[in-house]
Amino acid sequence: MTRIDPHSWADSDQPRTRSLDLALEVDFDRRRIAGEATLELRGPSDGALDLDTRALRVHEATTEGGASVPFQVGDEDAVLGQRLRLELPGGTRRLRIRYETPPEAVGLQWLEPNQTEGKRHPFLFTQFQPIHARSVIPLQDTPRFRVTYRAAITLPEGLAAVMSAGPAGERPGPRPGARTFLFEMPQPIPPYLLALAVGALASRDLSPRSRVWAEPATVEAAAWEFAGVEQMIATAEGLFGPYDWDRYDMLVLPPSFPYGGMENPRMTFLTPTLLAGDRSLVDVVAHELAHSWTGNLVTNATMDHFWLNEGATVWAERRILEALHGPEAAALSWAIGEQALEIELLRFGADSPWTRLRTDLQGTHPDDVYSSIPYEKGSRFLALAERTLGREGFDRFVREYIARFRFTSITTEEFLAFLEERLPGLARQVGADAWLYEPGMPANAPVFRSPALEALTALAEAFPAGARPTPEQVERWSPSETLVYLQHLPRHLDEAACRWLDLSLKLTARGNYEILVEWLTIAAGSDYAPVFPRLREVLLRVGRMKYLRPLYGALGRHPRTRALAREVYAAAAPGYHALSRRTAESVMAEYAE
Ligand code: BES
Ligand code: ZN
Q1: CB burial class (10 A; 0-12, 13-18, 19+) of residue 535?
Q2: From atom 17 of ligand 1, which residue's Cα is the shortest distance away?
Q3: What average pLDDT does range 522-550 have in this prediction?
């Protein structure tokens, strides 16, 4: 027995899945997906095959010829879920499993019509990264094993499906009104990139290879916000090589979506909080698009190497940003990330093992230690290598790295070996071992400076001493500059200071959620009551975990805001994704009394 991923029952001595064929029906009334998953193996196989599942109801397993395949569902492991062991008869190439999901499958969120913009149709979406695919499909749920897939998804009348795949037509379903949507993903992907969303959806073309999907009520706003996507794709291609995934489409989800974005191939999923109305939050699109190279082409072998995925993508995202908007804009983006990094180092403690880039997650659920560390420390490590070697040489290395490992999944050690092969001595020169294997931030971390950045931080730091920006200054600030200013203000302000800020920067009414949430975090931590109605509105509407953590955290400081948090949470929880509930509850568990 050779386990190859601390988060999977998959065994490298056993047969491997080459492709999946899904025939599933979505039942909103019962909140279940039911049907068949057929696993095509790499060759004729026999003997034990261990799959990952979590709370799935497995009804039957058969071979292609119809022979019954004995199976056994193991005990629940809190991190891994349940092992599904099948005993394959000799010569098995295709294995068919008939099953259904329970209503609380963690990889799914079922939304009532009132949780959508249109309020008339229900909505369903998946979120499989890091290890939730197994709660919807029985499979070898490790990024070490890439698969292609086909799917036939049957839906009730009036709804449409999108997937992380190419559309392959649709046909009438098995009962009146029902329709079956067909998909095909010919490129091998890690299981965490399988994705499905179902709802009343509309789309707008943005370029010959890109369109945006959303509910009809939001699709125009989405098309306007993301109109620049083709320019972004072209810029990324100039930096990292050809876009390899055919189309780049995006889906704007309802506001309970727990992340900012998810890089599902050919169909990035996005939070509607990006629709600021001024295109100021499209860096999230640059990030998800960048994953098309760093992540979806070259994946982390397991979650212990997650930094390879996210660190490289943040680095790539900021290179796209710099190419499009210049070095000042990139410096601001690095500064905004620096602040997130410092908060996380404080949260875990700078000597915590969760501040290492290469982690050891055996026995730990990756969702429990998700943080900005792999993003911000990882990207800084690569930026240091880039600075040390020079941009031209490093860019050549990055393109070679992508070409060498495309459509594979690699470890930190494989990355290091390739770095040493192509750029001998660079790893030692930048102190790679300390970056990768030691906690905290190494002393040689790159510093990102710009005149605008320095002026903003100095002004914010002088706030307690009475320094204030002039109305003309505030007027000229870009959204990123406003955000950097707010990030550098003290977390507790008196009532007069809060009132001054809100009036002068018109913060409570902002549509840019990064700015709004930064402000509400300060205001909540300052027990500033005039923002409470807006806070309540945000917490009731939005499930993005990046926002719930600081907001519920800041509300924990004062007895009155703690009571507010508990009251709002009780009302909001039924609309939150299971992951968002977990985050909010873990933050509130830290409250005094
Ligand atoms: N792949 C991540 C989201 C993710 C990571 C989901 C791990 C589940 C487990 C995605 O690319 C991401 O990083 N999103 C960020 C956006 C950002 C850094 C610009 C987010 O959601 O905030
Ligand atoms: Zn990412």
Answers
A1: buried
A2: 284
A3: 98
Burial of 447 (0-12, 13-18, 19+ CB in 10 A): exposed
Report the first-to-last Cα separation within the chain, whole angstroms. Answer: 48
CB of 263 within 6 A of ligand 1: the answer is yes
Distances (CA, A) of 259 to 164, 233, 304, 412: 17, 22, 20, 25
Of 106, 259, 267, the one to substitute when testing ligand 1's pocket (max ligand atoms within 8 A of C-beta) is: 259
Q: Which two tokens stand for residue 378?
A: 């990882």
Best CA proximity match to 52, nearest among 14, 90, 21, 109 = 14
Residue 130 beta carbon below 6 angstroms from any ligand 1 atom: yes
Q: What is the CA radius of gyration of the chain?
A: 24
CB of 211 closer than 8 Å to CB of 249? yes
291 CA distance to ligand 1 centroid (A)? 10
Q: Is position 513 annotated as part of the catalytic site? A: no
> What is the predicted pLDDT for the residue at 593?
80
State how far the Cα of 252 lies from the Cα of 218, in Å rounded to an integer.
8
SS (H, E, C) 71-107: EEECCCECCCEEEEEEEEEEEEEEEEEEEECCCCCCC
What are the backbone angles phi and psi of residue 457, rounded to the nearest 5°?
A: -65, -40
Pairing of strands 408-410, 298-300: parallel
* Ligand nearest to C-alpha 131: 1
| DSSP secondary structure of 219-242 | HHHHHHHTTTHHHHHHHHHHHH--
In tens, the pLDDT along 112-141 reads 999 999 999 999 999 999 999 999 999 999
From CA 524, how far away is CA 502, in angstroms rounded?
13
Percent with pLDDT over 90 in the chain: 99
Q: Which of 375, 528, 552, 569 is catalytic?
A: 375
Which among 39, 36, 73, 49 is positioned nearest to 1, based on CA atoms? Answer: 49
CA–CA gap between residue 52 and residue 341 (Å, rounded): 33
Residues whose CB is less than 8 angstroms from the CB of residue 61 and which lie 6 or more positions away in sequence, other chains included: 68, 69, 70, 71, 86, 95, 96, 97, 98
Query: Nearest residue CA, atom 6 of ligand 1?
Result: 129
CA of 291 to the centre of ligand 2 (A): 7
Confirm or reject: Cβ of 295 under 6 Å from ligand 1: no
CA distance 442 to 345: 12
Q: What is the number of the ligand closest to the CA of 260?
A: 1
Which ligand is nearest the CA of 287, by number?
A: 1
Annotated active-site residue 375? The verdict is yes
